[in-house]
Specification:
The protein is an alpha/beta fold. It folds into 2 domains: 11-204, 2-enoyl-CoA Hydratase, Chain A, domain 1; 208-254, Orthogonal Bundle (Lyase 2-enoyl-coa Hydratase, Chain  A, domain 2). The protein has 11 helices and 10 strands.
């Protein structure tokens, strides 16, 4: 089923228990401009307020690019004030992906450069095609990553390698992304969406209550000092413990049967 939003020009949004957001500007290699970012924000709002959506898959249209970056043609005409505004918009959108209570999987089919890598970094898990290419090439434009790359990349792959990639602006392949711990899986191009869906189905088979708490606590590991994060985990554990799903999950284990989640 398609979304009821007829005004999405640059995004295809298929709403279901496993929903798919496809950036659809293949002629521009799915580059992110203001309009695309604003449409993404609208889709995320819709997903956020619909508890029937259990997992979100994010991908790019065509076979060449996931998202090849921010729209450089648009950026070349921007003033300094416009540039700052564009960065702020990008940050808001990337944060909205991280703040979703459900898991988000990036299915990276081709180029994930600049804002494209930053979008993948805002997702929980990355499934990459063997044809995927990653990088933060902003330094080559006299810029730096502006949608969170300088903060999220070091957290994902460590400071040493992140410094090298951001300072050289060099691209790296899917195999390297897997070795760096950036990609979770690398699969043949023809298997990409099916592999992402298989992973999504595995996640959708868990308790939505526990998943929400797991994602929130994992996010705390990125945003909080360790002692605060450990306290956050205790509270999140307590919330999960108070759920009907915890009663069902522990009972099912003891009774040696599969759990029947109520997602509450």
């Amino acid at each position: 089923p398609r979304s009821g939003q007829v005004d999405l020009k640059n995004i295809i949004f298929e709403k279901a228990a496993i929903a798919t957001l496809t950036v659809n500007r293949p002629a521009a290699l799915n580059a992110l401009n203001r309009e695309v970012l604003e449409e993404m924000a609208r889709v995320i709002r819709e997903v956020r307020h619909d508890s029937s959506v259990r997992v979100l898959i994010v991908t790019g249209a065509g076979d060449r690019a996931f998202v090849a970056g921010a729209d450089i043609a648009a950026m070349s005409k921007m003033s300094a004030v416009d540039g700052l505004d564009f960065s702020r918009l990008g940050h808001r959108v990337m944060e909205s992906f991280e703040d979703l209570p459900i898991p988000v999987i990036a299915a990276v089919n081709g180029f994930a450069l600049g804002g494209g890598l930053e979008l993948a970094l805002a997702c929980d898990l990355i499934v990459a095609s063997e044809k995927a290419r990653f990088g933060q090439p902003e330094i080559n434009l006299g810029l730096i990553p502006g949608f969170g790359g300088t903060q999220r990349l070091p957290h994902r792959i460590g400071h040493n390698k992140a410094r090298e990639l951001i300072m050289t602006g060099e691209m790296f392949d899917a195999k390297t992304a897997l070795e760096l711990g950036l990609a979770n899986q690398v699969v043949a191009p023809g298997d990409l969406i099916e592999s992402a869906r298989k992973l999504a189905e595995k996640l959708a088979g868990k308790s939505a209550v526990a998943m929400r708490q797991a994602k929130a606590a994992l996010r705390a590991a990125f945003t909080m000092e360790e002692d605060a994060g450990l306290r956050f985990e205790q509270e999140a554990f307590g919330v999960a413990f108070g759920s009907a799903d915890r009663v069902e999950g522990t009972s099912a284990f003891v009774e040696k049967r599969p759990p029947n989640w109520q997602h509450k």
